[in-house]
Amino acid sequence: MAYSRLRRTSDQRKALLRDLVTDIIIYEKITTTESKALELKKLADKMVSLAKDGSLAARRSAASFVRLEPIDETKKVDAVQKLFNVIGPRYATRTGGYTRIIKTVPRRGDAAPMAIIEFV
Question: What CATH number is associated with residue 108?
C-alpha cells in the first residue's frame, strides 16, 4: 500500500505509523497532525477489519504490525488483545468508517495543522 512519505525514511515512517496505530488502539483517541491522522486512518480501519474477522491469520497479521505494549499490568492485557476482544466486537455490524478525524487549531510554535483522530 502506498503511504504519504511524511518527510521520513521508510523505516522511520513504518515505526511512526506502528506507534500511532498502537496508541489509538490503547487510548481510542489521540491528537496528531492532519497528515499523520490521514495515514493513520487507513491503517486503523484495516486493523479493525482484521479484528472483526477474528481468525488466527488475522490475529497474527495484526500482531505483526501492532506493538506489544501492555495496557493494564494487573490483567496482563496488551493492545492486540484489546483490539480483538473489545474493538472488533464493537464494530461487528458496521461495514466501514471506524475512525473519524476532527480538525483542531494549529499547533503553537510551528502552526502545523492539528487533528484529533478517534474511533466512532
Answer: 3.90.1030.10
